[in-house]
Amino acid sequence: MTNSALATAAVAAVDLVKVYGSGPGAVRALDGVTVGFDRAAFTAIMGPSGSGKSTLMHCLAGLDTATSGAALLGGTDLTRLPDKALTRTRLDRIGFVFQSFNLLPQLTAGENILLPLSLAGPAHDRALYTRLTEVLGIADRLRHRPAELSGGQQQRVALARALLTRPEVVFADEPTGNLDSRAGAEVLGFLRHSVREFGQTVVMVTHDPLAAAHADRVVLLADGRLAGELRDPDLPTVIEALRTAGAGR
Ligand SMILES: Nc1ncnc2c1ncn2[C@@H]1O[C@H](COP(=O)(O)OP(=O)(O)OP(=O)(O)O)[C@@H](O)[C@H]1O
């Protein structure tokens, strides 16, 4: 990948290294990863268990520190930001969707969606709030608490929350891991839709080839290194690429 392509990417890792622990027991979870994630594209990160997917996402999202290299968000190197600026950057510029939804149980769905805006401070974008809740099919569920919603509805609330701040990137960590196949397909369909309608950049870690086949591109990791990529993937090519990445270990 050229330097200019990395510079214009929404998110990029440049020679990213992450070592956990020290001495003989040290684990090199990322071993010099250089990869860019395009704007307004949906990219899936895949690879065998332990290949470094979560570590890569956590370093790119400023949730974990790197040992060396750069984690660029729109040209800002998160590895060099002081704690306070990093927290601010996460609130203002990054959206998160987790496998376990991570909604606050005592707040209603609507209050959960609005929470990052009240923390980040920008004016409440009423039009986007209305649009997102309509597109996600949760407009009539906003007064309910998470426990009164299905898993799929809870994840759609989490998606609305992640998108409402118009973040530069949404990181989704196994967003369909706790959902049945129908609810999972709805969430993936919406992630795609957010790329098309809102120009959202989405980076998703998943084990599921079916989920990855919804993406515009699949980036493969093996043993903490980049092991290939697929453009416009479909299910058979994802399965075959995973088999090859796993076999190369
Ligand atoms: N906090 C930690 N301390 C020590 N080693 C860690 C830590 N977190 C991850 N690792 C190790 O780093 C390597 C990469 O882990 P990572 O969780 O990034 O892989 P992954 O591809 O997301 O795996 P999975 O698909 O199983 O979730 C693994 O060998 C893992 O055991």
TrEMBL record:
Highest taxon above the source species: Bacteria
InterPro entries, per database record: AAA+_ATPase, ABC_transporter-like_ATP-bd, ABC_transporter-like_CS, ABC_transpr_LolD-like, MacB-like_ATP-bd, P-loop_NTPase
Gene Ontology MF annotations: ATP binding; ATP hydrolysis activity; transmembrane transporter activity
Keyword Translocase included in the entry's annotation: no
Phosphoprotein keyword on record: no
Cellular component, GO, one term: membrane protein complex
Organism of derivation: Crossiella cryophila
Keywords: ATP-binding, Nucleotide-binding, Transport
Lineage of the organism: Bacteria, Bacillati, Actinomycetota, Actinomycetes, Pseudonocardiales
Domain spans labelled ABC transporter: 11-248
Protein name as annotated: Putative ABC transport system ATP-binding protein
CDD domains: ABC_MJ0796_LolCDE_FtsE
Pfam families named in the record: ABC_tran (PF00005)
PROSITE patterns assigned: ABC_TRANSPORTER_1, ABC_TRANSPORTER_2
